[in-house]
Batch of 4 targets.
Target 1
Amino acid sequence: MEISELTALLADPLKLIPAIESLEPTIPAYAYDVEPENHKVVSDLSYRPWKEIDVANGVLDDKGNMTYRKEQRDVHRIPSSTQKQILNWAVHMNLSGGIEIDATIRDSFKATDETMLAMLKKTWDDNKLNYTAQKIDRLKKNYTQCLVVWYSVPAEEGFWDGIAPATSKFKMRCSFFSPATGDIIIPIYDQYGAMISCARKYTVAIDSKDVLKMDLFLTDKYITYINASTGWTEEKVTAIAYGKANFVFHGQDRPEYADVLPKIERVEEVDSDTADENQISAFPILAAIGEITDSTGGGAKNTRKTFQLSDGGDLKYVEAKGSQQSATDERKNLRRDIYDETGTPQISMEQLAGSSNIPGVAIELMFLPATNKARSNQEGDLGMEWQRHLNLLKSCMAVINVGVKLSVSMPVKPKFKIELPRNLTEEYTNIVSLVGAGLLSRDTAVKMLAFTNDPVAEYEKIKAEAAEAAKLKAPVVQPNTSV
């Protein structure tokens, strides 16, 4: 849809809303069923129907044979949390290191650039974006979409103290929406793939009735439409004073685990079938050849049961050969493929047993596929999404504090960090060796080890302690008492 087409339809909601709804993306049904108890191996009786079994009636027929009746019994239903593991690992690798604001302070605008940066960091921390970002990314990776909307609210007294003048009376807040809460986000692109608008369709309760609404976000305003008794009508228009649309759309084409979903479902099927089989044949069957003439023991006596057989009789255990191993091998291969194909680390306590001092390079290799995937995200869509947040917030800060208007053009970008397990013993040994060889300063060494949140203050303490120790070691000069 082109911006001219969209603008022409704004005055006619009865035509506008259907045109927007025609652009509504399809969210896969399985994205709503990510919780294990909602997987089809548990909930879909046509996929895994109940089994029919014969149950003895306790009555013999006229030939002396036991009679049976048919009964329906449920089968084992064993779901997996693999989808959630894939999502959690992907989000963790992307954002567990937080998002820093990397700004270039320009000499010609140093004062305003520093104020702008301070306001951005204050807004970032106030909205807890290092934590909120992970929630947003998780929603995007499961439902393929999440909409973040920024808006201003009155700032509490002293909020901007030491940063912006007292005339700065507002601050920024954000809310995010996704299909997880029943919202449907409809991004609107032009023929060149540029996003020109975005709509949010949702339901609210009014007078105990569900009412459908839609918010349409434009660069200078957002319009709320309501589906009333006469159809769609405009409810209200809210102006946007930032010079930019006040939303950022986070999206991807498919859920993070979409490629391996058939393999996950097969693992659940194998686990459930194996449980059914184990219930029936986990223990071998005793087969008798010939006639059993007598037996003793077993039962309530809790003794080994013995049998007396007629001439030529024999007893043998009968059990399946190979089937269990085949199922085990299939499951192992499926699990390996699932984690490999999604770049998800598969690390268990059994694998780590006895590995208390893994070399740093081995740790990096263990996480290499996940690291490459995260770096690709950070340098791709994820980075662009958070770059849009920063660009929007710069414009917002210039409205809240007109004194930083010149710094809207200050170069700012998100900076990501990938957190991996560390071999601190190895790092410490290497850094100490570099310091001892004169190739690294103690100040830099303290920062590299990152044992403290304030490396500068820590280094000052180290110097003070070293000076104090030097005083204690200084030789005491005895007074000359000779005549």
Target 2
Amino acid sequence: MNIRRWARFALHPGGGQRPTASNVNFVAGETASNAAVVAVGDGVDLFHNSSGTSHVIVDRSGYFIAAAS
């Protein structure tokens, strides 16, 4: 990672506002992992890295089905 001290990473649906909370926080040189449930937006999910450059691997799997009425 090319960051000076620490950074935070947020994933959010396209078409929506960036959340005020992050999905994962990390410091320079750290390998960090986390899991998050994020709604699908207008087809483009957005990533926001607060500082520098990072390498990110994202596995996208699973879905929710609305309850039968």
Target 3
Amino acid sequence: MHRRAALALAAALLAAAAGGSCSGRACPGQGADPGVSFDLSLLPATNPRPWEVTACVDGVCSRRALTEGEAAQVFVQHDGLGGQPVGVDLEVHDAAGVVVVDAHARVAPRQWAVNGEGCEPVVRRAWTAVDPSGSLTEQPL
């Protein structure tokens, strides 16, 4: 009987180490945070970096510099996102201090299972992108 219990424990530990299971398949163990991503990659290269970026989601803000060679993306973590649309704001200044983007939009955070349907974690996320003219729009998941 002890051998069976040891085998069952070993199998459970193996399943946990593999990230659990969902729908009869192993789930990857990638984590995720709730919040909104801002993609600035379409801004013209004529705007010299570093950029000073302030991104806000429903009053929760993140401010950082994006230097040359860094991905042109900013993420604002917001643990209180629900299913209702929220306001997002983005302000970008170039290296000379010139305002390149001053944009506002509303986005509807959606349930997102980073490891696939039926796998944890499931968080509320929204994605936005800035077009070359500086307009901010919500993107599909």
Target 4
Amino acid sequence: MTAAPTQSAAAPAPLFRRLHPRAGETIAFTIDGRPVAAKAGDLLLSAILLNGGALRRFEFGDGHRAGFCLMGACQDCWVDLADGRRLRACTTPVEPGMAVVIDGVRP
């Protein structure tokens, strides 16, 4: 029996996976300084969860959150960017060069 490969702390296992390849421009952005990529038209929430295991830190404990409704109704998907913006990840398209802060120091 072979042990399953483990994910390093720098690259958490994604919560989402793309079921069908998507054509279009690749958009580069970062999550806590780690370079990642999305496709043009991806919403920030799906791009983060395709590239990592959490959307944001829980404010009242040491856990992580991954969004709740995924459609803009619940307010659980707010994320911080390194430039100081705070955005709803479920309704914001990914932009080139976005620097998402999940576990790093918030602006």
